[in-house]
Structure formats: C-alpha cells, structure tokens
Specification:
Order of helices and strands: EEEHHEHEHEHHHEHEH
Largest sheet: 8 strands, mixed
Number of helices: 9
Number of domains: 1
CATH architecture: 3-Layer(aba) Sandwich
Shape: globular
CATH class: Alpha Beta
Strand content: 15-25%
Helix content: 25-40%
Number of strands: 8
Radius of gyration: 18 Å
Structural class: alpha/beta
Length: 270
C-alpha cells in the first residue's frame, strides 16, 4: 500500500492544506510498479465529520485494509469546522478547496480515474452533508454515494437569524450564517435534489446507514423519508450503533463491499 499524507498550497484558501491518499497494491507485498501502463484506479472520496481532519479516517478505521481488498484508491480530506462551506462569515473557501481544487491536484499527481463510473463519494456526520452537497452539484460525476450516521440538510436545521447556541452546532453561525442565506441555493440539499431532478440528471446509487442509538437518529429518519418523497433512491440500513467511528468503520466496509467493484488491479485473494 501507498499511504500518503500530501500537503499543498491551496489557492482557494491561500494556505497549506493536507490530504490523505491511499493507493492499493496489486498483490500483497509486491511493488506498485507492476501496475499496467495507463491504468487509473477507481476512487472513493471520503468525507469526515465536523471538527475532524484529513487523517481521521486513516487513524480511526481500517480503511487502508478495505481499500487493498477492493483495489480502490481513497482520498480523505478535512474541512475542520467549516461545515463544508465557502463560509458566509470570513469567506474561507473550504468547499471550493475540497470539491474543485483537491481533485485537480491529486489527479495530477496520482493515477486516479476521472470516469464517473469509477468515482464514489461517502461521508460521516457533517461529512454526510458534504457528500450530498458535492454529489448534487453534478450527480452524474459519481457512480454511488454513501452516508454513515450523516447530518443531512443543514438548511433545515438553521434558524432564520442564525442564532444558534454555541454548545450546539457551534460552527453553524460562522459557516452558514442563517437559513435565509442558505435556503434555495446550492448549499440547500433539498433544493438541489429538486433542481437536478427537474433537469433530468441521472442520480448515482445511494447507501444510507444510521444506528438507533445515534443522537441524530430521529433527524436521519425524517430526512430519509423526505428524500424518498423527492425521488432520491437509496438503500437504507437501520441497525444498532452510535454516532462514532466504530459505526463508521463497520459501514464504510459494508459500503465498499456493496459497491461490488469489478475488474480492478488489486491484490491476490488470500
């Protein structure tokens, strides 16, 4: 495996940022140099929760092992407390850096596929919102999306004046400001589902999992039903689990297995 922590200067943010890139081996214990000429890996773009960074998936889950088993590259970014936004207060362009700049950089440096049929996106907690937001900018750029204990549509959680208690979703006032600035914009997941459906866009396959012990469980059920009514198709898993990395570790594995990726240049089965 090649497990790389990449630092680059972000023109969008005007500062150094980090990205974790995993490139799977073709055969356990053998060199990556045996990869066929011109081969490009299928890619999972993996989003983390609010306040976490680009190292957390690699540190708190077995994602490196799962990538090796499936023959899939993984790109892990982190937008910290930005809420997957180009922030409304301060205008820090975290979402631009994540969704536009980082793919350009890592595809320039690594053999990653640009084929939508070989690109997948998933996220945990606030990364669930980031996953939906990124996917909905152009649903046809991904073959599948996954949400693991994910916060769904922030626009539905905001107040009109942006008054949010600091001990609850403390990032919201600076990142989103208020509902009136987010509703019916590309930052509003419900609005974007309606817009892209009306435009006749083909949507990727979906996988959404939530545990009954999750602090967001009731909200997750509500959003899942709302999305179904809007015509968003996905496989729903409701099981036992809390809002934590143990749950994410379990379901990122299930998600990758569910993708059933075929024909990859991967390690031998043991």
């Amino acid at each position: 495996m090649a497990n790389i922590r990449l630092y680059y200067f972000s023109e969008a943010l005007q500062m150094k940022v980090g990205v974790n890139v995993i490139i799977p081996e073709n055969t356990w214990g053998h060199s990556l140099m045996h990869r066929p000429a011109g081969y490009r890996y299928p890619v999972l773009w993996l989003q983390t929760g609010g306040g976490f960074d680009y190292t957390d998936w690699q540190r708190y889950t077995a994602i490196e092992l799962y990538a090796a088993e499936a023959g899939i590259a993984v790109v892990c970014s982190g937008t910290y407390c930005s809420g997957y936004m180009d922030t409304k207060r301060g205008d820090f362009k975290y979402f631009t850096q994540l969704s536009i700049e980082t793919p350009q950089v890592v595809r320039h440096l690594f053999p990653l596929s640009e084929d939508p049929k070989e690109n997948y996106i998933a996220g945990f907690s606030m990364g669930g919102y980031g996953t939906l937001k990124w996917m909905l900018r152009d649903p046809e750029q991904f073959a599948a999306f996954g949400l693991f204990s994910g916060v769904k549509n922030v626009a539905d959680l905001l107040s009109d004046d942006g008054d949010v208690p600091r001990d609850t979703f403390f990032m919201f006032p600076s990142a989103f400001s208020s509902r009136k600035l987010i509703a019916d914009t590309p930052d509003d997941v419900v609005y974007m589902i309606k817009k892209q459906k009306a435009a006749g866009k083909k949507f990727p396959r979906g996988y959404i999992a939530t545990g009954v012990e999750d602090t967001h469980y009731e909200d997750n059920l509500e959003f899942m039903e709302k999305y179904r009514q809007l015509g968003l198709e996905f496989e729903a898993t409701i099981d036992h689990g809390e809002h934590n990395w143990e749950y994410c570790n379990r379901h990122v594995k299930r998600f990758i297995d569910w993708l059933n990726i075929q024909g990859t240049f991967q390690r031998d089965k043991e």
